[in-house]
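Feature request disguised as a bug: please show the residue count (145) next to NTF2-related export protein in the output. Example input:
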Amino acid sequence: MAQSRSTSAIEGDILIQLSYSAAKTFVTNYYTDLQTARTKLKAYYTPTPTISWNGNNLSGGAADVEKLHTEMAAATYEVQCFDAQPLMPNGRGQCSILLVTNGYVKFGDEKDAPSRGFSETITLEPDTSNPPKFLISTQSTRFVF
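Example output, currently without the count:
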């Protein structure tokens, strides 16, 4: 006799699928804008994000985000993989997403610039804007030199 799956297991599968779909869209848009339209990046963050950039904590919220991205050298990002997991629902039918990305970054405009590994761990919080989207509330970025 076949066992039926519990409702909570099905709901968990749906949350995983929705998290993956939202994360895939986020990764595509965020890393494209990180390379080509940095002035748009402030819109990806909550008003008071917690950011760790290569071991340095930034505590200035949106102002630090803008300064970090506008003063950073030109870079080309190649995301090799990402993983997205739903975090506990918040009681309003929404859940945050834990996103981990890994890949390579090349700083500067030179074609022969060396590629460096990078890893980011990001917490995406649901935003109630229309259309709904997710915003970065925490971000930890590490470069492998």
